Amino acid sequence: MRRLKKSLLLLSLISLTSFTFAQDSVINERTKILQNGKDLGFITVLTPIDVVKKQANKATIKIKGYRLENYPQMIVRDLKRKELYAEFKDEESSNKYFKTIKKHEDDYGEIWHEVEGVFTIDTKNIAKNPDKLKLKAKKTYEQSCSMCHHLPASNAYTVNQWPQQIESMMEQVTLEPKTKNLIIKYLQQHAADAK
Asked: Which keywords, in A-to-Z order, does the entry hold (predicted)?
């Protein structure tokens, strides 16, 4: 009986650790999403994911988000905050591999689908230390954006305003797409309406 209790306790701890890992996982760079080996599109840096299973160099992940009924290829954070999570190459793939959980109507009468889908990615694209990646994003923002002007607070703009703000700076400074996307995602996750 004692051995059974120890085994159950150990199993509970392992399950809890796995659950915690899955809930705290993020993508470390723009990554192809696959289904049965087919390239469907991409998932963006710092997008939260649930890790369902890992095998060798592949991981099965779950993505949750929202998509506009009339443009289902883009998966975003939610109805009001359009932080891009994933984008599909075509409408057919998006419709085929995402399950609609619930439909919502926004303030403008547009219909949004709350969705989730299970996909395969390369395990190297899951951040081993999400906090370290987020710190890197913060430092990259501070270093890149304070060279020419006063650095606005990360909560100075909304989730939807930050991409346009950063894009307007591209006339003055050239950032690699990878760096620009990391900065935008960091700012969106710390925006005035991020919580």
From this structure: Signal
Q: Which structure tokens are listed for 182?
A: 């990391």
Comparing CA positions, the residue from 132, 113, 166 lying closest to residue 46 is 132
The fold of the 130-189 domain, in CATH, is Cytochrome Bc1 Complex; Chain D, domain 2 (1.10.760)
Tens-of-pLDDT digits for all 195 residues of the chain?
Answer: 555 444 434 444 344 333 333 457 999 999 999 999 999 999 999 999 999 999 989 999 999 999 999 999 999 999 999 999 999 999 998 999 999 999 999 999 999 999 999 999 999 999 999 999 999 999 999 988 887 778 899 999 999 999 999 998 888 888 899 999 999 999 999 999 998
Distance of CA 167 to the CA centre of its chain: 20
What is the value of pTM for the model shown? 0.83
Region of 61 please: left (phi>0), alpha (psi -120 to 50) or beta. Answer: beta
Q: How many CA atoms lie less than 13 Å away from 13 in the CB half-sphere?
A: 6
* Beta bridge mates, 31: 43
